[in-house]
Amino acid sequence: MHPVTAAVTARIVERSRETRADYLARMEAARHAGPGRAKLSCANWAHAFAASPDGDKQRMRNPNAPNVAIVSAYNDMLSAHQPLERFPDIIKAAAEGVGATAQFAGGVPAMCDGVTQGRPGMELSLFSRDVIAMSTAVALTHDAFDAALMLGICDKIVPGLTIGALAFGHLPVIFVPGGPMTSGASNADKARVRALYAEGKATRDELLDMEMKSYHGPGTCTFYGTANSNQMMMEMMGLHLPGAAFVTPNTPLRDALTAQAPIRAIEIADGTNAYAPMSAVVDEKSIVNAIVGLLATGGSTNHTLHIVAMARAAGVIVDWTDFDELSRITPLMARVYPNGSEDVNAFHAAGGMAYVVRELLDAGLAHEDVVTVAGEGLRRYQQEPFLEDGKLVWRDGPTASLNPDILRPVNDPFMPEGGIRLLSGGLGRAVIKTSAVKDEHLIIEAPAIVFQDQDELLEAHKNGELNRDFVAVVRFQGPQANGMPELHSLTPVLGVLLDKGFKVALVTDGRMSGASGKVPAAIHVSPEAGLGGPLAYVKTGDLVRLNAHEGVLEILVDAAELAARPRAPRPPAGFGYGRELFGAMRRAAGPAEAGACTLFGDAA
Questions:
Q1: Which residues contact 6 (CB under 8 A, 6 or more apart)?
Q2: The model's pTM
Q3: Confidence band, pLDDT 50/70/90 cuts, at residue 501
Q4: Annotation-wise, does 42 bind a ligand?
Q5: Whose CA is closest to 324, among 301, 353, 356, 306?
Q6: What confidence tens digit (pLDDT) does each residue in 360-390 have?
Q7: H helix runs in 268-375, sequence order
Q8: What is the pLDDT of residue 96?
Q9: Alpha-helical segments (H) within 167-251
């Protein structure tokens, strides 16, 4: 084991000692209580399967017969979740084949950041994670299940399902993904047309035509943003069947993996020799594995929020210092768009997660001795699924990358460090994704231009006011101010200015999404401006220094002068698009470094 990985893990274990012990005690108590259906009155239990087919009813009369919960984020608006429509029938048939039953226990909401980017609805996005967690709890609280399957893919959905399912961590839980859509238009062409549109050199019809060629069918968007980072993370945490992450939808192999999930969930249920509850799968080591996988593959900055919140749900306490120290010793093995030119299908074809897992384990950067839903520790995940005569089998994945332009070994990486660094200084603590940023852009000292929201910046660019060196400070975008929306709509504009030769950077208490690209962006700045953090005192013209190499985010203004300034007034919360319904969640939200979560009582 690499000494830094071991030291960070040991520190997390010690920091989490009390909260983890409390969580495990609650899960053990829930386990010994047994499934609630054995304790329900006849009337209660009859309600639970009144609409089931006769064969299922006969099996469910037996309180000892396995019953598997299905919790799904299906909707047919979102390409990633549309394939989930077929999954319950596949799962139910597979469960019946082994003498068990499966019930659709509940649905959870699934909104798409790709649809709401730059729109008011984006202010609901982060909090939808916590709504999903609560919806998962509602689905499972009927207490009629021996195991659970989580059907979800995209940005807030998988973290929300994880947080909710961990409240029932005495159950085995397997995540069942849908897979990425097949590759469409090249990412280079997509980026080119987006940049032309930002400059006014492409029409809206031309832009829409390119976007439709990129997002063209069922499945997850193929760039390596939060959705596909989720799938990497589920592999690294041992919550998928091995190799399930990046098999495309509506294929025989995908259907076979979906059918195997309930069978495996029953095999690892309580009372078996292979009992593997979620509370044992998600522990300090598997959380470290998730972080290391994120860093090695250049994954989404959103997971500096989500991994923290997910870990907290399991009684494990991590912070951005843990990410930073692991990043310094984890080499960047992958370049997948927006960190490279090719998509996640090309990453999968090059060796994908099986190769990443093998390399990280062989280098001692990840923990092998963990509980997984597949058994046999994380080493099992260096295998890939195949169909042989219609039967699902696993074989060892490649021992060498099949495309070194996309995937490289630990000893010959794209970068010696992972893609995420901690910044700290007079403006607070923030994270920056460095894996797609050229080295010459990782240090900038320039005057600030302060904006209260992203629309102000876009208007300034439209008016030709930004053709100079500057640091864009976009504030009052934190969780308590407005729900911490992604500001990905700024990427094309700032990228155009960078291409013109100007030195530009973004500093914000908002998010920049898994699609963070070539522009240096200090994001998730904490404490946020809405709570009186330093960003609330910055003025246009103040010199700001961002140095990603040294982990510095400073304002070059005398501290006494900064403190004597009046605080910029916090804009009123938005109304419309459902935002008025989320006021209580904004008030309850904890700081970004604690996961910006509304569920754990961390609000400042």
A1: none
A2: 0.94
A3: very high
A4: no
A5: 301
A6: 999 999 999 999 999 989 999 999 999 999 9
A7: 278-281, 284-297, 303-313, 320-327, 344-349, 352-362
A8: 95
A9: 187-198, 204-214, 226-236
Please tell me the predicted confidence (pLDDT) of residue 603: 62
Distance CA 498, CA 430 (A): 22
**Separation of alpha carbons 327 and 321, rounded Å:** 10
Does residue 154 have a known ligand-binding role?
yes
- How far apart (Å, rounded) are the C-alpha atoms in residues 579 and 255? 38
For 95-146, what is each residue's pLDDT tens digit?
A: 999 999 999 999 999 998 888 888 888 899 999 999 999 999 999 999 999 9
Cα–Cα nearest to 6, from 282, 288, 379, 328: 288
Task: Name the E strands within 51-186.
Answer: 67-72, 101-107, 147-151, 173-175
**What separation in angstroms does the CA of 541 have from each of 50, 455, 490, 527, 560?**
68, 20, 20, 22, 17
**Interval 57-89: pLDDT, tens:** 888 888 778 999 999 999 999 999 999 999 999
505 DSSP assignment: E
The tens digit of pLDDT for each residue in 164-196 reads 999 999 999 999 999 999 988 877 787 888 888
Contact 508, 547 (CB under 8 A): no
Amino acid at 256: A
Q: Which CATH superfamily is domain 420-573 in?
A: IlvD/EDD C-terminal domain-like (3.50.30.80)
Decide if 74 contacts 84 (C-beta within 8 A).
yes
Work out the number of other CB atoms within 10 angstroms of the CB of residue 46: 13
Q: For helices 204-214 and 187-198, give the axis angle rounded to 10 degrees.
A: 160
Who's near 596: CB < 8 A, 6+ residues apart? 126, 305, 309, 478, 479, 484, 524, 589, 590
Rounded CA separation 177/244 (Å): 7
How would residue 514 be classed by pLDDT, with cut points 50, 70 and 90? low
Instruction: Return the domain boundaries, the chain.
Output: 3-33+66-182+217-396, 183-216, 420-573
Nearby residues of 31 by Cβ (< 8 Å), 6 or more positions away: 170, 270, 277
Left (φ > 0), alpha (ψ -120 to 50) or beta: where does 597 sit?
Answer: beta
